[in-house]
Amino acid sequence: MSSYSTVPRALFIRWSWYLFAAVSACTVIWTFYALSEYRSLKAITRPLASSSSPSKAAGNATLGFQAILALSPSPSWRTAGLQAAAKFTGLQIQIPPQPPLHSEIVDAFAGLGSEDVRHPNHGSSLAWLAHLDLIKYVVASDMESALIIEDDVDWDLSIREQTVGIADAVRKLTNTSASDAAPYGQSWDVLWVGLCAETWDQNFETVFVDDPTACPADLYRGLAKGPVDRLPPSQRAVFHSGAPICTFAYGLSRDGARMVLQDVGAGKDEAFDIALMNGCRERNLTCISVLPEIFRHYVPPPSFGGSSLVNSKDEDNNTVRIETEMGSTENILRSARCHALWGKDCLPR
Q: Which keywords are on file for this protein (predicted)?
């Protein structure tokens, strides 16, 4: 059942120290473009995971990660729906309290780097720092792995079956030994399972997952529509990331959490997800994407107000505790949020 976890204050490193440390940590420049190293191999379809396969553990209450952590500044309709969906599908989600961030720190972070680099706006800086704080919590807790989700995400009723197939595919893609007990193996840094854009074609080394719950191409919406149109019907593609955008949900390995902090900890880009994408493409992060995604952000009805914390205004209803009207979730066939709150699907058609 979802709950707010108690996090020792000692785990949250002072932001003033962190900003200075982050600048020095990001002085190394990686110049090799990872995407150019992808091999053109024939995609394969995975067999079903055996009952003894470690990937079976990806169907547990934390989807095979040591913890599922939700990024949320405060209780709201977003967290209420998140908790309802988690209870409805048997997931355990922690919502660590976020430390307060003063405007001076946010603005200082936004201004890091020279004038010729891209800088995030205030809202993007705030979201970026929140992601970094949660990743620091993963590192300080010495977690084997963690799934970080934003507090407005949604998923399918069959999420625990979906992740078993994805875990099996990740193990195959990374040639994980059968002796490795980690559900997804350990040969990756970032597992991008909730995105809004990505590139893919038949030249990507790919493991396909047979999944009748994958959103059909004719119903799929978003910037990844082109790649999804090229996928075989009723299958998900698991492949080394090309150009993923949006961090609705992403997994981190133990080493990956540390490397992400080092790679994107000093800002110097337009947003957290763009910096992370560039770390996957241009530097040394090993990233794997899942398409169609299995997490997507839920959008309340227009009458309800703003839904994005990045661009929200003071008058937006991000602090409202209870929704009174159903919204929608793109690309998720059977929404956990909508079934938990209203007992029906909410896929736009």
A: Membrane, Transmembrane, Transmembrane helix
For the record, the structure tokens of 121 come out as 């706006």
Nearest to 30 by CA among 260, 287, 288, 285: 285
Q: Which residues contact 96 (CB under 8 A, 6 or more apart)?
A: 4, 5, 7, 69, 134, 137
Checking if the pLDDT of 339 tops 60, the result is yes
Strand order through the sheet with 153-155: 153-155, 295-299, 328-329
Residue 346 burial (C-beta neighbours within 10 Å; 0-12, 13-18, 19+): buried
Give the start-to-end residue ranges of the domains of the chain: 29-342
Helix (H/G/I), strand (E/B), else coil: 93: strand
Cα separation, 154 vs 232, whole angstroms: 24
* Nearest CA among 97, 62, 67 for reference residue 79: 97
**Cα 282 to chain centroid, rounded:** 19
Token pair for 251: 């997994």
- Identify the CA nearest to 318 among candidates 9, 80, 25, 42: 80
What is the C-alpha to C-alpha distance for residues 341 and 329, in angstroms, rounded to an integer? 13
Res 91 pLDDT > 90:
yes
Helix or strand or coil: residue 167?
Answer: helix
pLDDT, tens digit (0-9, with 9 covering 90-100), for 226-279: 999 999 999 999 999 999 999 999 999 999 999 999 988 766 677 889 999 999
Start-to-end CA distance of the chain, whole Å, equals 31
Contact between 118 and 269 under an 8 Å Cβ cutoff? The reply is yes
Q: Answer whether 88's CB lies under 8 Å from 334's CB.
A: no
Instruction: Give the CA angle between residues 157, 163, 164 to the nearest 5°.
Output: 115
pTM for the full predicted model? 0.82
Instruction: Kindly list the distances between the CA atom of residue 272 and the CA atoms of 41, 126, 247, in Å, as whole numbers in the listed order.
Output: 31, 10, 8
